[in-house]
Every structure is written in C-alpha cells, then in structure tokens.
Design brief:
Layout (H helix, E strand, L loop, with lengths): L11 E9 L2 E8 L5 E7 L6 E2 L4 E2 L10 E10 L2 E9 L8 E8 L6 E3 L6 E2 L19 E8 L2 E9 L9 E9 L2 E9 L8 E8 L2 E8 L4 E7 L13 E3 L3 E9 L2 E9 L7 E2 L4 E5 L5 E5 L7 E6 L7 E2 L6 E5 L3 E16 L5 E10 L3 E8 L5 E7 L4 E9 L8 E10 L7 E9 L2 E6 L2 E7 L7 E21 L18
Length: about 500
C-alpha cells in the first residue's frame, strides 16, 4: 500500500495508473498544495516506490501556475501523453482547464500546447464565466478514450442549465483537425453536483461509465450498448463502497483492474492507495468487483481447517458451545453473544471458507480481536443480505461512553436459499477486504486495531464453518520505504 507520505502521512490525492512493459506507473496529486504530480512504480501493483516527480505547476503567468489537478496517462504513437487539469493564479483558481504533457519514457515530461489545449468550460453545452452560479467552473479530471478511430476526452463538467446542485455531468470533447472541440455531455444524471474522475471502458460488448460522487463518497457506474448512447443505471449501481474514491481503470491482459484512493476518517485528509480490485460482468450485464489476481503471488504457505489453532470462547457465555471434527466446526450461542476466536498465523493473511447459518439469530466474522473483545466485527445478515464492518471495543478516554462502536463500511449481497456463503477475508497490513461468493463487498483501510485473534461470532444462532483454509501472506513493504531511490529512477 502507499500513501505518498512525507511531512504529512496522507498526501496522496487522485490517482491514475498506467501499465507499460510489466511495470505499473502510478501518478497522483499531492494534497493539499497541488503543486506537482508525483510518480511511483511497482512490479506487483501493490507495493510502490517513488520516482522522479512528473510535472510541476507552471511559472508565474502561465495557465497552470496555481495548482495541478487530476490527470490521465495514455500512449499515442511512439510517445506517452498526460492530460491534466490546471488552475491559474490570476483567476484565483476558480477556472479549471485541461492541458497536456508528453514523455518518451514515462519519467521525463514536457508540457505542450498542441490539439487546441489548454481547453476550458464554455457554452452552449457547459457553464461559462457568464453562466456560473457557483462562482467557479468545473472542468477537470480528463480521460482519453478512443472509439471507432476517433479520439475523445471525458471530463468532470457542469451542464449549462438545470438545478444548480444537479448540473454535474460527464463532459465530452472530440479531437478534430482544429484540435479538441467541445461536444454535448456524454452523460448528465441530473442528480449530482459533480461526477468526478469519469472514465469509460468496454467489457464484453458493453460500455461502462464510472464516476466518483462527492455527495456520498462512493464510486458508481452506468452502462450503454455503445459509447455515445444513453447511459443507464441498474437498480444498484455502486461499484466501490463508501470511502473509496477517484477510481480509474487499467487493463492487464484479460484483467480489468480498478485503482482508487481510500480516505480514513475524512475525505479531506488521511488518504491511502489500497490494493486494486478487478472487474467482471455477470449474465445481466452488471459490473462485479473481484479480488486482484496477483494475491496468489503473495502466499507463503497454507494451513487447512483441520490444522487451525485451538479455538477459545472470548466472553465465557455459558450458553455457548463448540464442536470440532476434522472438516467441520459447529458453533452456537443460544442466549447472548459469543466470539469463537483463534490465533491468526500471521499479520497478513487470506482466510476463506463456507459459513452457514442454521435457524434464527445473528453471526459474523471477527478480525484483529484481543482477549477483551476489542477488534473489527463483520456482521453478516443472511435474511436481508446486508454486510457491515464495525470497530468495536473499550474506550478508556471517555468515562461517560466507555465503548467504541463505529460503523466503517457497509454493502449488500445476494442471498442464497440455504443461508450459506463462501467468504474470503484478506488482511494485508492495515487493509481489509471481504468477498462473498467471489464478489468483493468490503474494501477499506483502518488503523485502530491489531489484536492477535480472528474468528467468528454467534448471537442466538447456530453456525458452521467448512472448507476453510488460511493463506499466509508476505507483509506489505514499509510505506516509508517508498521514499527510497529505486533503479527505475535511472531510466
């Protein structure tokens, strides 16, 4: 994982990842100054090392002499192009424009003014300085997309008319002989103030438009049969749950991967780049979020359920019972709550298995718990298809509220008739990821707990665990190690 840490541990802003010759190249903003675009590289897509900074704000008087915002890197002919957002001091940063820079090695970049750039928001389709009810113009987060031998730029923009808080749209510009020319918006949802970091991909013959929404800090998507057709939403169109933001997509072979930053606590601070997830499509055309295929490369060893450490009941509930045989665990707490925990084999691991709920009651998973029951609790609602992770434990700092009970993230999942699910829980450093029946439902970073126990809990329920394995993972590289010079810097 990566945070771009320096004076502040949480400097990373919007991200873009470009894959070239087997090396992942991460470009990201620096918060809060926005004075340069940073660059890091990775061989596995998870652990990163800083490189020579890619781009700096312009000299006084230039169009981008105030701040640099979100970028997108692509390959054009024999060179690479970075489309990026710039703000000017003379306009007090209120006017966003899109420009570009070129590179022949992804390390050294030079700004240029080709293709009619820089380009800003203008009528008749978009807000202008004469039609600007918010007193600042949204025109940022460019994304290049080629379609039928034509080149387009998508950007976060605002429609020229409509309710002020609902004008956010996905702007569109087309490359012509005169340079990039504004087109009508690719998509206007009539819901949001802005649709940030838009990008579009084609998977299995359908087009998917992805955008980050500030109102609820989630990543959402819409789909269309063709790039320039009407985009529509499914009944549930959240791609990444709350806290994940500024998503961008790259392709590696047959794998579509989504990168984003995660905010810890507040969207304006505490930003970290988590491991990527992958995209797939179901039979109905809905996007599915799956675990990164390179996790298998991190496995150092595997422990099967028959060799798991000894189980302990944490709270001593007299109505609780546990029965173990070679391939099955049965756990029950007839009245009240009980945690059935065991020593985790390493700080970083993948734990998977089949969990079944029998009868009434509640159940879930427990991560990084101590013997007092302080840790992360993942509730699994087999009746309503709802999963939620909480930090839960003792709070010694408040004598009036001596407890921590903080919801961190929630999502929905599809129910099986037999109230059974296959779960896959990844704990990698401070990263937590939970998949249910192969679909990622929770993906977050949290720093509160690091207890030595993992396990399951029962609350007036009978549950069973079968087909379970524990994979021991190598630990993530130290984040501050990303400041070390790497051999890539010499290219």
């Amino acid at each position: 994982m990566y945070s771009g840490s320096g004076y502040s541990d949480w400097e990373i802003g919007d991200v873009d990842v470009f894959l070239h010759d087997g090396i992942y190249h991460l470009f990201h903003l620096i918060i809060p100054n926005h004075d340069y675009i940073a660059h890091a590289t990775s061989e596995d897509g998870i652990n990163w090392r800083r490189e020579k900074n890619a781009l700096f704000v312009g000299h006084p008087g230039e169009w981008d002499d105030d701040m640099l915002w979100t970028m997108h890197v692509s390959k054009e002919d024999d060179h690479f192009v970075m489309y990026y957002t710039g703000l000017a001091r003379k306009e007090k940063g209120k006017v966003q424009q899109v420009g570009r820079a070129i590179s022949h090695d992804l390390i050294h970049w030079e700004k240029e003014t080709a293709c009619g750039l820089p380009m800003g928001s203008d009528g008749p389709h978009y807000e202008s300085m004469q039609n600007n009810p918010r007193n600042w113009l949204s025109f940022r987060d460019p994304f290049r997309f080629d379609y039928r031998n034509e080149t387009y730029l998508l950007m976060c923009a605002r429609a020229a008319a409509g309710a002020v808080s609902r004008r956010g749209c996905v702007g569109l510009a087309k490359l012509t002989d005169k340079g990039f020319e504004l087109q009508k918006p690719l998509f206007t949802p009539y819901v949001y103030d802005d649709v940030e970091c838009p990008c579009v991909i084609e998977i299995k013959g359908r087009f998917y438009l992805i955008g980050s929404i500030r109102e609820d800090v989630k990543v959402r998507y819409w789909t269309a049969p063709e790039f320039l057709d009407e985009y529509r939403a499914f009944h549930a169109n959240v791609l990444l749950p709350q806290g994940n933001y500024a998503a961008r997509i790259i392709k590696e072979g047959d794998h579509w991967m989504v990168y984003n930053f995660y905010f810890v606590g507040n969207v304006s601070t505490l930003r970290v780049l988590p491991p990527p997830k992958e995209l797939d499509v179901d039979a109905d055309g809905r996007l599915l979020l799956k675990s990164f295929h390179r996790w298998n490369e991190k496995i150092l060893g595997t422990i099967y359920q028959c060799a798991f450490p000894l189980i302990h009941t944490t709270f001593g509930n007299p109505t609780a019972s546990f029965h173990q045989d070679k391939e099955r665990w049965d756990m029950s707490s007839k009245s009240g709550y009980e945690v059935f925990g065991f020593q985790k084999p390493a700080a970083s691991f993948i734990w998977e298995g089949r969990l079944t709920l029998e009868g009434i009651g509640k159940c879930g998973l427990v991560v990084d718990c101590d013997h007092e029951g302080n840790g992360y609790f993942i509730s699994l609602d087999f009746v309503h298809g709802f999963v939620q992770i909480r930090s839960w434990g003792f709070n010694p700092e408040n004598v009036h509220s001596n407890f921590v009970f903080e919801p961190l993230q929630a999502n929905q999942f599809e129910l099986e008739d037999d109230r059974s699910m296959h779960f896959k829980l990844i704990r990698f450093g401070h990263y937590i990821e939970l998949s249910i029946d192969g679909i990622v439902k929770l993906t977050l970073i949290d720093y509160r707990y690091s207890g030595k126990l993992i396990g399951l809990y029962s609350s007036s329920s009978d549950i069973s665990l079968t087909d379970s394995v524990l994979h021991i993972l190598s630990d993530p590289e130290e984040e501050y190690g990303s400041q070390e010079e790497s051999v890539n810097s010499e290219r």
